[in-house]
TrEMBL record:
PROSITE patterns: TPR. TPR repeats lie at residues 972-1005. Residues 640-649 have a biased composition (Basic residues). This is TPR repeat-containing protein. The chain crosses the membrane at residues 12-32, 44-62, 83-105, 117-135, 147-166, 186-206, 227-245, 257-274, 286-306, 326-347, 359-380, 386-404, 424-443, 545-566, 573-591, 597-619, 661-684.
């Protein structure tokens, strides 16, 4: 083996530390201080680690560089290395499709939502390559498995905590019914865990098999204590992470100064976990404990300093019942780690092979880890991962029994082989019965199966073929589209070029718009465009075309063939089980990918599995991973005693003189690249999150809006090429323009010189204050327009940028009454129509701008020009209703248009249709509707009837969901609106029953009670009116709502006066 320098050895150690840290950081770490929290932050953490590791790998390669000769051609040698050619082809396809992408920059760097571009995918490949060229022992592979399992157990445990309703974090979504753990999505956490279960089973099987032939423990007490010490160290890391999560929920600051604490805690926990992988033949190192203490000292110093400044708030037990005790859990982590480390160092070093007891403990613990991960998988209720898990377990058990059968036959153990053969047939038969049951469960309408579908956890497996509702309908529409949009399949079939090379990695978000099925908007958020098809293989076709799918399948099939070949050729039973586990890991990922989205954690594990399989085969001697054989080392004596009179130094000596500067330069470049491409975007997103928080709470407070503006500008300075961030700044500027207008600040004039560069120069408080003081409403809108135009320049295929410029110009018109702004709005909406022809929301907005322009012409006396615009708007709205007949906004706009044309009866018909489709939305504009109909009693009665019918439909739903507070509030609102319209129509008696229903549903609503009281008084039911008013007075007095109390008292006094 070639001699390695000290620097080379340290590089190898740090590289290994980087990939071990990646195995814990990626699944565990999430960033509550950023706007995206999960996937992009995980991707950037992995990318940063791999950049550092790759740079050190390059330095290590230069340090060990020796002259090489090729006994055969380079291509032939490359072909001799398994998976080398498939990986190279897969990499080249990524680069080619990035170059041909419709959005090359996004394809390379990744989208804002996912960050899964070519750079991130090259990171996965490079991570695997680093493992291949650095791993030199079986112990390193086992260390990777151990760390992966600990990370999986930590993730699974947090999922169980969520299900038990002990999660300290107040997540917006439901993480109790379907746990999401540290990956932020129930499908994601399940997809990650199913790839780790085979590793736990591998450990269990190998340990259990080894225990049968291992010697009894000479010192059982020491084995139990060693296991206890390791368990306490693992627990210490987990308690540390839970304490930090609790701290994040309990202690709030005005900024994100504690952002570093969680990733640092993961690093500290990883160091603790690493220490137990060194084996019993080495004493536990102390430096992980010192690192943890240093972390806690740094945190304590910052916490104490921040507490004295008064800018942080700590929650109490009432506000954060599962988080306020974070300090106790932190202390528990220190105690657990201290006891575990002390016990581990006290135990004697053991050089003999593991005993039967220690292997038995390992088997039981590994089985427990598998059980915990399976439990969290069940709690996720994710059907795609369930199928992946089932396929993985079928493959693992089938291959395991087959390998055991082969081993028994080779050992001529006839009886054992017969039992294994019977067991294998029984297992395959049971699997076939389970598959038959699953098919029947999904196809049969028998009463038994219908009842079974309502059983928690199990029932979802009977809805795999459900494509008419829920996520099944979403997937069908994304995959196949509808009558108006072709969906992902339409993208593939659009033209031969894109069928061959796809639209580009990470391009679906913008490329999907022309193929968007309008029906999808009825089951997903309106205006949203899917960035994934929820099927990995279809995504390959969409983003990288046929060459992408073929290269991916080439890689996967090559891996399967390699793993099967190694499993058959390996003489070692543990190695056979290892290759079976690797195959099962990949099988779980492949099956789950048919229904889901590959994420950072699962793609990382995929390449880890490929790398470990490849390295294991090389360690067993099945092939070599060297591209060429190095020239024989120069004899030691010759190196020490060079030829006399030699005046020129050796090449190695010359390189040694240049190395420090070269290595330093490489490290500086790596650090700069890590900051600019990975850390700066995270910082930018944290500033963006801070800006959003301030902006949402600002209301009309101009000072807080200025603070938000400063954060938005800092965000853009840190990540100037992320077009998404410009939208927040533009929204903030438009809000400030509206606040100025509301405060009576003169509109001013548009600023033709407004530009983005001037805003970025506002980098201090004085500059910001000066900008605000000299700005007017229209001047502020000019800068908002410049910001949105910059976003459009960065990503012209994003429909939202053109749409936002159309919205801004429409808003500008509302302030200035300048028809030119409507013309500009329509120009932008014309671009939107080309980008997203099937988006009915944007079609309606375009029609709305036409209606506003027609109204402007009508008010100026140009009736013919107004009718021209009204006709165009009508045609658009008719087209919109054809695309999506269920969109209520279309009917409401058609009603407005009919009213402007003077046909109030037709307008009422359209309004009735809108109320039928979306009564709650329509109820928000009831006064405007009454005004549009000129308070015509007959027409208002029709609206009253429509709202009353909707209220009764909602009331029927409420009877089936009596605990749904939102539905109760909506039902009360609809009854109240029905009563109000009856009152507007002069039918006070008809208003009584609806208002009575509204009050019975929302008895604490002062608005409903007062309106009901007034209707009772108007209909001369004075005693009932007084009874209702007095009831509400008691309610208000109990809640201390003083302003409303005064109103009710005045109302009682007025009723008494009338009743006399």
């Amino acid at each position: 083996m070639p001699h390695e320098s000290t620097l080379s050895r340290w590089c190898a150690r740090i590289i290994e530390a980087c990939w071990l840290l990646a195995l814990t950081l990626v699944p565990i770490y999430f960033n509550l201080f950023s706007a995206r929290h999960f996937e992009p932050d995980k991707a950037m953490a992995l990318r940063a680690l791999v950049v550092i590791a790759a740079t050190l790998g390059l330095i290590r390669g230069l340090e060990n560089l020796r002259p090489i000769t090729f006994d055969v051609g380079l291509w032939q040698r490359l072909r001799a290395i398994p998976l080398a050619v498939p990986t190279l082809v897969y990499t080249l396809v990524f680069l080619i499709t990035t170059a041909t992408s419709v959005v090359p920059a996004t394809s390379f760097w990744g989208s804002y939502q996912r960050l899964q571009g070519t750079y991130t995918n090259l990171t996965y490949i490079l991570l695997g390559l680093l493992m291949v060229v650095t791993i030199r022992s079986r112990a390193q592979i086992e260390r990777i498995i151990t760390i992966s399992l600990i990370a999986g157990v930590t993730t699974a445990a947090y999922g169980v905590i969520q299900h038990l309703q002990l999660d300290p974090l107040p997540w917006k979504g439901d993480v109790i019914t379907r746990v999401a753990s540290t990956l932020g999505n129930s499908i994601f956490v399940a997809a990650y865990l199913i790839m780790l279960v085979p590793l736990a089973l591998y450990r269990m099987v190998v340990a259990w098999s080894g225990a049968r032939s291992a010697a009894p423990s000479p010192q059982p007490r020491n084995d139990w204590l060693r296991a206890l010490a390791q368990g306490l160290i693992i627990l210490s890391g987990m308690l540390l992470l839970l304490a930090v999560i609790k701290f994040g929920a309990a202690v709030r600051t005005v900024d994100f100064r504690y952002w570093w604490f969680f990733p640092a805690a993961v690093m500290s926990a990883s160091a603790l976990w690493w220490s137990i992988t060194l084996g019993s033949e080495r004493r536990l190192p102390l430096w992980p404990a010192f690192a943890m203490l240093a972390l806690l000292m740094l945190f304590s110093s910052q916490f104490a300093l921040t507490a004295t400044t008064g800018i942080q708030v700590a929650s109490n037990a009432d506000d954060a019942p599962h988080a306020y005790d974070w300090a106790a859990w932190l202390l528990g982590s220190v105690v657990s780690g201290g006891v575990g480390l002390g016990l581990g160092r006290w135990l004697p070093v053991r050089s003999d092979p593991p005993s039967r007891l220690s292997l038995g403990i390992t088997a039981v613990v590994s089985g427990g880890a598998a059980l915990l991960m399976i439990t969290t998988l069940v709690l996720s209720q994710s059907r795609g991962p369930f199928l992946g898990f089932g396929a993985s377990m079928f493959l693992f058990c089938s291959l395991l029994l087959w390998a055991a059968l082969r081993h028994a036959r080779n050992q001529q153990q006839v009886r054992r082989a017969a039992r294994l053969r019977t067991l294998l047939f029984a297992w395959v038969g049971a699997a076939l019965l389970a598959a038959t049951f699953l098919i029947s469960f999904n196809l049969s309408d028998a009463p038994f199966f219908n009842q079974l579908r309502s059983v928690p956890y199990l029932g979802r497996m009977g809805q795999l073929l459900e494509i008419e509702s829920g996520t099944g309908l979403v997937r069908r529409l994304i995959w196949l589209g509808d009558a108006h949009g072709g969906g992902a399949v339409g993208m593939v079939r659009a033209d031969p070029w894109h069928a061959l090379v796809g639209w580009g990695p990470e391009s679906m978000f913008v490329a999907f718009n022309p193929f968007f099925p309008p029906s999808l908007a009825n089951v997903e958020a309106r205006g949203a465009s899917p960035d994934r098809s929820h099927m990995a293989y279809l995504d390959e076709l969409v983003t990288k075309g046929m060459i992408g799918l073929v290269s991916y399948l080439f890689l996967i099939i090559s891996f399967i063939a390699l793993a099967l070949r190694l499993m058959q050729r390996s003489p070692s039973w543990p190695q056979q089980v290892f290759f079976i586990a690797m195959l099962s890991m990949v099988a779980a990922h492949l099956v789950e990918g048919g229904f889901g989205i590959p994420i950072v954690a699962t793609l990382m594990l995929l390449w880890v599995a490929l790398a470990l399989t490849l390295v294991s085969g090389a360690l067993e001697g099945h092939y070599s991973l060297q591209l060429a054989a190095p020239v024989a080392d120069e004899p030691e004596a010759k190196r020490r005693n060079p030829t006399k009179g030699r005046s020129r130094p050796s090449v190695r000596a010359q390189r040694a003189k240049q190395s420090p500067a070269l290595y330093a330069g490489l490290l500086l470049v790596a650090l700069w690249f890590t900051w600019s491409s990975n850390l700066a975007p995270v910082y930018a997103d944290m500033r963006y999150q801070a800006a959003q928080g301030v902006s949402e709470q600002a209301g009309s407070d101009i000072n807080r809006l200025v603070v938000a503006m400063d954060d938005y500008l800092a965000t853009i300075r840190s990540s100037p090429n992320e077009d998404f961030y410009y939208l927040g700044l533009a929204r903030n500027l438009m809000t400030m323009a509206g606040v100025m207008y509301a405060r009576g600040v003169p509109l001013g004039t548009a600023d033709p010189q407004a530009n983005m560069a001037d805003l970025l120069h506002l980098d201090n408080d004085d500059a910001l204050v000066g900008f605000i003081q000299r700005s007017t409403s229209l001047g502020m809108l000019s800068y908002a327009e410049a910001v949105l135009q910059r976003a459009y320049q960065l990503n012209p295929l994003n429909k939202d940028h053109a749409a936002n410029l159309g919205r801004l110009n429409s808003y500008w018109y509302n302030l200035s009454n300048d028809p030119q702004r409507l013309q500009q709005a329509l120009e932008w909406y014309d671009q939107v129509a080309r980008l997203a022809p099937n988006d009915v929301t944007l079609i309606n907005e375009r029609a709305g701008a036409m209606i506003d322009l027609g109204r402007a012409y009508q008010e100026s006396g140009e009736a013919s020009q107004a009718e021209l615009w009204y006709t165009q708007a009508d045609e658009l709205l008719i087209h919109s209703s054809e695309l999506d007949p269920r969109y209520a906004d279309t009917a409401m706009r058609q009603g407005d248009l009919a009213q402007l044309r003077g046909d109030r009866a037709a307008a009422t018909s359209f309004y009735e249709r809108g109320i039928e489709l979306a009564p709650v939305m329509a109820s928000q504009n009831v006064d405007r509707l009454a005004e549009r109909l000129d308070h015509d009693p007959a027409l208002l009665t029709r609206l009253h009837t429509a709202f009353l019918a909707a209220a009764e439909r909602y009331a029927a739903r409420l009877e089936r969901n009596v605990d749904d507070a939102t539905l109760r509030s909506q039902t009360a609102r609809l009854y109240a609106v029905a009563g109000l319209l009856a009152a507007y129509a002069g039918a006070s008696e008809a208003a009584l029953a609806p208002y009575q229903q509204a009050v019975s549903l929302q008895p604490t609503s002062a608005e409903y009670s007062q309106n009901y009281t007034l209707i009772l008084s108007d209909t001369q039911h004075y005693q009932e009116a007084l009874a209702e008013a007095n009831r509400m007075l008691i309610v208000l007095q109990g809640s201390g709502r003083s302003n409303e109390i005064a109103n009710v008292e005045q109302l009682i006094k007025a009723i008494n006066n009338v009743a006399r």
